[in-house]
Amino acid sequence: MGHPQVNSRKTPELGSAREARLINSLVVIAYVLPIALILGPFCIFFVVSFGRVEASAVVIDFNLSNYVRILADSTVRMVIGRTLVIGIATALVCTLVGFPAAYLMKILGPTRRSLLMVAFAVPLLMSYVIKIYTVRNLLGTNGVINHFLMASGLVSQPLEFFTLSYYGVFLTLTSVLLPFAVFPIFLSLDRIPASLVEAAADLGASRTRIFWTVIFPLSLSGVAVSLTFTFVLAIGDFITPELVGGPNGFTLGRIIFSQFGLGFNWPFGAALSIFMMMIVTVALALATRIRPPGKVTF
Predict the structure, then answer these.
(1) pTM of the predicted model, to two decimals?
(2) What does the DSSP assignment read for 235-295?
(3) Residue 297 — pLDDT band, cuts 50, 70, 90?
């Protein structure tokens, strides 16, 4: 009579142990696989960056010539500097424009908020190349903006600095990456408890004071994400400089792309990739220092 009771007690325990092992295995796979897919190529690039090209073959002899070239070549330094300027400018402009848009999205009613969210989300569903060509048609010498300026008599000939230049790359990146700034800021604004805003209003704080002492400080995490997203995406983009920048719009991402393509200098391209990874790491480290205050005073 006692044996069936013992078996009935052990069966659930065995089942739970198997479930625990299965869950642990899935967790290991979920973490190990992405880490391997990220660290694997990074380690390969790191090793290749210490090599050189000899007779159309990559030779790994662990020398620092590629990194020395990055620091010594004035053209490469100029391109890196301009890439950083474009990345920082794109991040700042996207965040400055995205914050009011996100705040408007926050204070609107449910219907209008949904329409505005769809308006910013639809470009994310489109092909990246299509978005770039759309902006290019707006900014090009035969684009809508130049046609408007010439028809209104403001200019006598089409303006060319919108395209085939760094200005065109900057304007295109700002237009394309704006949704990546709006949504993180909106999420941070949406998480602010309404009770804090109501408490500040009850204590006599004006709308301006409420914004600067309550809303803006508590949205800094979204601002940090917005700056990081747009900066990293801008400096790593090579399609926009290729299609919009022309011969005068070289960026770091475009040089890296060329080294793995027509240039066939994988070691130098890998070194540039590691250098870009270092820039991204520094940007992420700086972004983590932008935090909401521990308490709000008004």
Answers:
(1) 0.84
(2) HH--HHIIIIIGGG---HHHHHHHHHTTT--HHHHHHHHHHHHHHHHHHHHHHTT----SS
(3) low
Look at residue 12 and tell me whether its pLDDT is greater than 80.
no
pLDDT in tens, 177-210: 999 999 999 999 999 988 888 888 888 888 899 9
Q: Tokens in use for 234?
A: 């801008």
Cα distances (Å, whole numbers) of residue 133 to 173, 178, 246? 12, 16, 14
In the predicted model, what is the mean pLDDT of residues 222-240? 93
Q: Which of 193, 185, 233 is nearest to 210 (CA)?
A: 193
Q: Which CA distances in Å does 39 have to 33, 58, 201, 274? A: 10, 21, 50, 12
- What is the sign of the dihedral through the CA atoms of 82, 83, 87 and 88? negative
Type of residue numbered 10: K
User: Which helix (H) or strand (E) element contains residue 59?
Assistant: strand 57-60
DSSP string, 80-144: HHHHHHHHHHHHHHHHHHHHHHHHHHHHS-HHHHHHHHHHHHHHHHS-HHHHHHHHHHHHSTTSH
Instruction: Decide: residue 115, CB within 10 A, 0-12 exposed, 13-18 middle, 19+ buried.
Output: exposed
Compute how many other C-beta atoms are within 10 angstroms of the C-beta atom of residue 142: 8
What single-letter DSSP state applies at residue 148? H
pLDDT single digits (tens) 257-287: 989 888 889 999 999 999 999 999 999 999 8
